[in-house]
Design goal:
It contains 8 helices and 4 strands; from the N terminus they run ααααααβαβββα. The protein folds into 2 domains: 1-103, N-terminal domain of the delta subunit of the F1F0-ATP synthase (Peroxidase, domain 1, Orthogonal Bundle), CATH 1.10.520; 106-178, 3-Layer(aba) Sandwich (Glutaredoxin), CATH 3.40.30. It is an alpha+beta fold. Strands 2-1-3-4 form a 4-stranded mixed beta sheet. The longest helix has 19 residues, at 2-20.
Protein backbone atom coordinates (compact mmCIF):
# COMPACT_ATOMS: atom_id res chain seq x y z
CA UNK A 1 0.00 0.00 0.00
CA UNK A 2 2.83 2.38 0.86
CA UNK A 3 4.50 1.69 -2.50
CA UNK A 4 1.29 2.54 -4.40
CA UNK A 5 0.95 5.78 -2.47
CA UNK A 6 4.56 6.64 -3.30
CA UNK A 7 4.04 5.72 -6.94
CA UNK A 8 0.90 7.87 -7.10
CA UNK A 9 2.76 10.90 -5.68
CA UNK A 10 5.67 10.57 -8.08
CA UNK A 11 3.39 9.87 -11.06
CA UNK A 12 1.31 12.93 -10.26
CA UNK A 13 4.48 15.05 -9.97
CA UNK A 14 5.83 14.07 -13.39
CA UNK A 15 2.31 14.34 -14.85
CA UNK A 16 1.90 17.89 -13.56
CA UNK A 17 5.33 18.85 -14.88
CA UNK A 18 4.39 17.42 -18.28
CA UNK A 19 1.17 19.45 -18.26
CA UNK A 20 3.02 22.64 -17.23
CA UNK A 21 5.52 22.14 -20.05
CA UNK A 22 2.67 21.26 -22.46
CA UNK A 23 4.56 18.08 -23.35
CA UNK A 24 2.22 15.40 -22.01
CA UNK A 25 2.45 13.24 -25.12
CA UNK A 26 6.26 13.54 -25.33
CA UNK A 27 6.75 12.70 -21.64
CA UNK A 28 4.38 9.76 -22.06
CA UNK A 29 6.39 8.42 -24.99
CA UNK A 30 9.64 8.82 -23.05
CA UNK A 31 8.27 7.10 -19.95
CA UNK A 32 6.94 4.30 -22.18
CA UNK A 33 10.40 3.99 -23.75
CA UNK A 34 11.99 3.63 -20.31
CA UNK A 35 9.27 1.17 -19.27
CA UNK A 36 9.87 -1.00 -22.35
CA UNK A 37 13.60 -1.17 -21.62
CA UNK A 38 12.86 -1.83 -17.95
CA UNK A 39 10.59 -4.74 -18.94
CA UNK A 40 12.79 -6.10 -21.74
CA UNK A 41 15.95 -6.03 -19.64
CA UNK A 42 15.29 -7.56 -16.19
CA UNK A 43 18.97 -7.14 -15.34
CA UNK A 44 18.56 -3.35 -15.59
CA UNK A 45 15.50 -3.44 -13.34
CA UNK A 46 17.33 -5.63 -10.83
CA UNK A 47 20.39 -3.38 -10.86
CA UNK A 48 18.48 -0.11 -10.46
CA UNK A 49 16.30 -1.52 -7.67
CA UNK A 50 19.18 -3.08 -5.74
CA UNK A 51 20.17 -0.96 -2.70
CA UNK A 52 23.64 -2.55 -2.63
CA UNK A 53 24.81 -0.59 -5.68
CA UNK A 54 25.87 3.04 -5.35
CA UNK A 55 23.37 5.67 -6.55
CA UNK A 56 26.13 7.46 -8.48
CA UNK A 57 26.81 4.30 -10.51
CA UNK A 58 23.12 3.88 -11.24
CA UNK A 59 22.78 7.53 -12.28
CA UNK A 60 25.81 7.24 -14.52
CA UNK A 61 24.26 4.22 -16.25
CA UNK A 62 20.91 6.01 -16.71
CA UNK A 63 22.66 9.03 -18.22
CA UNK A 64 24.63 6.79 -20.56
CA UNK A 65 21.46 4.99 -21.72
CA UNK A 66 18.95 7.84 -21.90
CA UNK A 67 20.81 11.15 -22.29
CA UNK A 68 19.68 12.65 -25.58
CA UNK A 69 17.08 9.88 -25.99
CA UNK A 70 14.48 11.22 -23.57
CA UNK A 71 13.43 14.71 -22.49
CA UNK A 72 15.78 16.29 -19.96
CA UNK A 73 13.02 16.47 -17.32
CA UNK A 74 12.26 12.76 -17.71
CA UNK A 75 15.93 11.91 -17.26
CA UNK A 76 16.13 14.18 -14.20
CA UNK A 77 13.03 12.46 -12.85
CA UNK A 78 14.74 9.07 -13.20
CA UNK A 79 17.83 10.41 -11.45
CA UNK A 80 15.62 11.71 -8.63
CA UNK A 81 14.05 8.26 -8.27
CA UNK A 82 17.54 6.79 -7.91
CA UNK A 83 18.52 9.43 -5.31
CA UNK A 84 15.35 8.76 -3.31
CA UNK A 85 15.75 4.98 -3.72
CA UNK A 86 12.38 4.70 -5.47
CA UNK A 87 13.25 2.90 -8.72
CA UNK A 88 11.50 -0.20 -7.39
CA UNK A 89 8.16 1.58 -7.94
CA UNK A 90 8.92 2.82 -11.47
CA UNK A 91 6.54 0.35 -13.14
CA UNK A 92 3.67 1.53 -10.95
CA UNK A 93 4.63 5.16 -11.61
CA UNK A 94 4.56 4.47 -15.35
CA UNK A 95 1.12 2.81 -15.16
CA UNK A 96 -0.38 5.60 -13.05
CA UNK A 97 1.14 8.25 -15.34
CA UNK A 98 -0.52 6.52 -18.31
CA UNK A 99 -3.89 6.50 -16.52
CA UNK A 100 -3.62 10.20 -15.67
CA UNK A 101 -2.48 11.03 -19.19
CA UNK A 102 -5.27 9.04 -20.85
CA UNK A 103 -7.84 10.68 -18.62
CA UNK A 104 -6.53 14.16 -19.46
CA UNK A 105 -6.41 13.41 -23.21
CA UNK A 106 -9.86 11.75 -23.22
CA UNK A 107 -8.55 8.32 -24.17
CA UNK A 108 -10.22 5.13 -22.98
CA UNK A 109 -8.12 1.97 -22.99
CA UNK A 110 -10.03 -1.13 -24.05
CA UNK A 111 -8.60 -4.57 -23.37
CA UNK A 112 -9.88 -6.91 -26.06
CA UNK A 113 -9.43 -10.65 -25.77
CA UNK A 114 -9.98 -12.91 -28.75
CA UNK A 115 -9.46 -16.58 -29.49
CA UNK A 116 -7.53 -15.89 -32.68
CA UNK A 117 -5.81 -12.95 -34.28
CA UNK A 118 -8.40 -10.41 -35.55
CA UNK A 119 -7.64 -8.61 -38.79
CA UNK A 120 -7.11 -4.85 -38.92
CA UNK A 121 -10.56 -4.21 -40.45
CA UNK A 122 -12.28 -5.95 -37.53
CA UNK A 123 -10.15 -4.04 -35.03
CA UNK A 124 -10.95 -0.70 -36.68
CA UNK A 125 -14.71 -1.50 -36.69
CA UNK A 126 -14.53 -2.49 -33.02
CA UNK A 127 -12.59 0.69 -32.18
CA UNK A 128 -15.18 2.89 -33.95
CA UNK A 129 -18.06 1.12 -32.21
CA UNK A 130 -16.41 1.52 -28.80
CA UNK A 131 -15.67 5.19 -29.52
CA UNK A 132 -19.33 5.81 -30.35
CA UNK A 133 -20.42 4.03 -27.15
CA UNK A 134 -17.92 5.72 -24.83
CA UNK A 135 -17.72 9.12 -26.51
CA UNK A 136 -13.94 8.96 -26.13
CA UNK A 137 -10.98 8.10 -28.29
CA UNK A 138 -10.28 4.39 -27.73
CA UNK A 139 -6.90 2.71 -27.60
CA UNK A 140 -6.99 -1.07 -27.98
CA UNK A 141 -4.77 -3.48 -26.04
CA UNK A 142 -4.98 -6.92 -27.57
CA UNK A 143 -4.85 -10.25 -25.74
CA UNK A 144 -5.33 -13.83 -26.89
CA UNK A 145 -7.18 -16.63 -25.14
CA UNK A 146 -7.87 -19.70 -27.30
CA UNK A 147 -10.35 -21.01 -24.71
CA UNK A 148 -12.85 -18.35 -25.86
CA UNK A 149 -13.44 -20.47 -29.00
CA UNK A 150 -14.59 -17.39 -30.93
CA UNK A 151 -15.93 -13.87 -30.47
CA UNK A 152 -14.46 -11.16 -28.29
CA UNK A 153 -14.40 -10.04 -24.67
CA UNK A 154 -13.99 -6.28 -24.16
CA UNK A 155 -13.05 -4.60 -20.89
CA UNK A 156 -13.09 -0.81 -20.55
CA UNK A 157 -12.49 0.35 -17.01
CA UNK A 158 -14.94 -1.58 -14.84
CA UNK A 159 -17.23 -2.49 -17.77
CA UNK A 160 -16.98 -5.96 -19.30
CA UNK A 161 -18.74 -7.04 -22.47
CA UNK A 162 -18.55 -10.75 -23.18
CA UNK A 163 -19.36 -11.58 -26.79
CA UNK A 164 -17.42 -14.83 -26.81
CA UNK A 165 -18.76 -18.26 -27.63
CA UNK A 166 -17.41 -19.54 -24.33
CA UNK A 167 -19.30 -16.79 -22.46
CA UNK A 168 -22.53 -17.58 -24.29
CA UNK A 169 -22.17 -21.30 -23.55
CA UNK A 170 -21.57 -20.56 -19.86
CA UNK A 171 -24.64 -18.27 -19.76
CA UNK A 172 -26.79 -20.96 -21.43
CA UNK A 173 -25.49 -23.58 -18.98
CA UNK A 174 -26.27 -21.33 -16.01
CA UNK A 175 -29.78 -20.67 -17.36
CA UNK A 176 -30.45 -24.37 -17.91
CA UNK A 177 -29.18 -25.23 -14.44
CA UNK A 178 -31.41 -22.53 -12.88
CA UNK A 179 -34.50 -24.03 -14.55
Amino acid sequence: MLNMELARKYARAIFELACEEDKLKEFGEDIAKVQRLYTDCPELKSYLSNPNFQPEDKKSLLKEIFEGGVHEHVLNFLLLLVDKRRMHVFEAISAIFNELSNEKLGIAVADITTAGEPDETQLEELRKKLESVTGKQVSLRRHRDPSLIGGVVVRIGDRRIDGSIKGRLEAMTAELMAN
